[in-house]
Design brief:
By secondary structure, this protein is of the alpha/beta class. The chain has 3 domains: 10-258, 3-Layer(aba) Sandwich (Rossmann fold); 270-341 and 471-556, Ribosomal Protein L25, Chain P (Beta Barrel); 351-366 and 389-461, Ribosomal Protein L25, Chain P. It contains 13 helices and 29 strands. Helix 11 packs across helix 12 (324-338). The chain is elongated and about 100 Å long.
């Protein structure tokens, strides 16, 4: 099935119907993150959805920060979010937008509701308000301040704005229906007092609108046609519509809900992600083990793989949990095609080519990618001393070729992109452990079949011991070892995988020290690695394991 044949999701069906019937002349969506943390994989799929729909239907998509809670918001989050959106390959329409840009308008609209008798200043504290609000089995009780006059409410609201009340003492509430079965309609808060500095408006305001009061009005001001939210906002939709009906807004957007992206072995709560950072379980928001966009980027995930994952997950109206292996499959599939090949030896065993003179360096030519000639070639220095992996040699001559396709004493193997060699002898240390293997190369076998009678068991990778370079490899694995780390009452930190990071040295091809930060490679037979975007330097090469060649968690399960 091609992309054009793929069944349309329910949002695409709605949009196509709206366009066909002329309800909207053009599609206008928005991505509205709160700048109180870094974006995670769930946000990434929302970005792909909102910007993707705008692209598909030749519309526009705004980037808007819902910055109505300055206590938890920082400029560093604003900057990181913009960078993430751009890195994923999207560009927002016009300038970056902020809820705070509309604070003057929101204030005027709050006055409008008061004048219409549809909002009042409530002096109840938070606990009293909670008790009087009731629950799903108990109707709410009207606030004793609900019946105050318009004049009194206007005066009280002005005192709120002037900072005459302390935080938590008073709030402005909509006067809707305390008996409503929908808890969101039981006189929701419109404004609360927060005497904190705002990263955009400074100290101009000490009252801030609630998210519910800002959300729909922002959409209306910006001309959003399809306001796409996750399912937890489904019960908020009647309130969204109530504000649009009772305020002098310039447009009437519509809200639609879809299921958020949930992954097993993953935590996406911003509060819990921040706890991982604050308690130094990880090394920051962009730690490659984090499910943040910046973390995945540093791990070596590509924009194409994340967009592919978003497409695989699809758009649904019902919640579910996707297997993180889908995300891992997406990056493996992408890197298999795009990543250049290279060789790295993680557990080095010295192999001496006895019939190659000391000091002689032969240049071997290898393709950068076996199926992509346009990526060019690379040069591998071949020297008398090289490193192979410990696991690629054995003295056990009883092992069949089927069971062991590597180097066996007295037998032949091909070195990747180089000669066929024969293992002749071993040298041991004082403890009887193998210190080095002595071998001889078969002339004329570079890129050629060996002479008749010589049958190499297989092909192994190698690196020159004298020309190769040492690099730091950061071997990353899943951060959690439980499929549902944050379910139930148990502390999610109890399920942190103690083996989620291992750091080790390795010998790599000498050209790899000049790799560009964020350049990805397949280290043959080891996995996909990326040059760390911050720490990789020619004098200190650092590579992060993006993903192994195979799914090892499937076998564990």
């Amino acid at each position: 099935m091609t992309a054009t044949d793929k069944a349309r999701n329910f949002l695409e069906q709605i949009i196509e119907k709206d366009l066909a019937e002329g309800r909207v002349p053009r599609i206008h969506t928005r991505f509205p993150p709160e700048p109180n943390g870094f974006l995670h994989v769930g946000h990434a799929t929302s970005i792909c959805l909102n910007f993707g729909l705008a692209e598909k239907y030749q519309g526009e998509c705004n980037l808007r920060f819902d910055d109505t809670n300055p206590e938890k918001e920082e400029q560093v989050y604003v900057d990181a979010i913009q960078e993430d959106v751009k890195w994923l390959g999207f560009q927002w329409s016009g300038d970056v937008r902020y809820a705070s840009s509309y604070f003057d308008t929101f204030y005027e609209w709050a006055l409008h509701l008061i004048r219409e008798g549809k909002a009042y200043v409530d002096h109840q504290d938070a606990e009293s308000m909670r008790l009087n609000r009731g629950d799903f089995n108990k109707p709410g009780v009207d606030s004793p301040h609900r019946s105050k006059s318009v004049e009194d409410n206007l005066a009280e609201f002005e005192k709120m704005r002037a900072g005459e009340y302390e935080e938590g003492k008073v709030s402005l509430r909509a006067k809707i229906d305390m008996q409503s079965p929908n808890m969101n309609m039981r006189d929701p808060i419109l404004y609360r007092i927060r005497k904190v500095h705002h990263h955009q408006t400074g100290d101009k305001w000490c009252i801030y609108p609630s998210y519910d009061f800002a959300h729909g009005q922002e959409d209306a001001i910006e001309g959003i046609t399809h306001s796409i939210c996750t399912l937890e906002f489904q019960d908020h939709r009647p309130l969204y519509d109530w504000f649009l009906e009772n305020l002098p807004v310039p447009a009437k957007p519509k809200q639609y809900e879809f299921a958020r992206t949930n992954l097993n072995y993953t935590v996406t709560s911003k509060r819990k992600l921040k706890k991982l950072v604050d308690e130094k379980v990880v090394h920051g928001w962009d730690d490659p083990r984090m499910p943040t966009v910046s973390g995945m980027r540093r791990r070596g995930y590509t924009p194409a793989s994340i967009r592919r994952f978003a497409d695989m997950v699809g758009v649904s109206r019902s919640d579910g949990t996707a297997d993180v292996s889908m995300l891992e499959h997406a990056i493996r599939d992408d890197l298999n095609t795009s990543a250049a090949r290279a060789m790295a030896v993680l557990s080095p065993l010295k192999l001496v080519i006895s019939n190659l003179p000391e000091g002689e360096v032969q240049e071997m030519i290898a393709a950068a990618h076996p199926n992509r000639p346009e990526l060019g070639q690379r040069t591998l220095p071949f020297t008398r001393e090289i490193y192979i992996d410990h696991e690629d040699f054995t003295e056990d001559t009883t092992l069949s070729r089927k069971k062991f396709k590597r180097l066996v004493i007295g037998e032949y193997v091909r070195l990747r992109s180089a000669y066929v060699i024969k293992a002749d002898d071993v040298i041991r240390d004082e403890n009887g452990e193998i210190k080095e293997v002595h071998a001889s190369y078969v002339p004329g076998t570079v890129g050629e079949d060996p002479p008749e009678g010589i049958r190499p068991r297989g092909v192994i990778h190698w690196v020159s011991a004298t020309e190769g370079k040492q690099a730091e490899l950061r071997i990353y694995d899943r951060l959690f070892n439980h499929p549902s780390p944050d379910r139930g009452d148990e502390d999610f930190l109890n399920h942190v995988n103690p083996d989620s990071l291992r750091v080790q040295k390795a010998w790599v091809e000498p050209s790899l020290v000049n790799a560009e930060p964020e350049q990805g490679f397949q280290f043959e037979r080891e996995g996909y690695f990326v040059a760390d975007r911050f720490d990789h330097k020619p004098n200190h090469p650092v590579f992060n394991l993006t993903i192994g060649l195979k799914d090892t968690w499937a076998s564990k399960a």
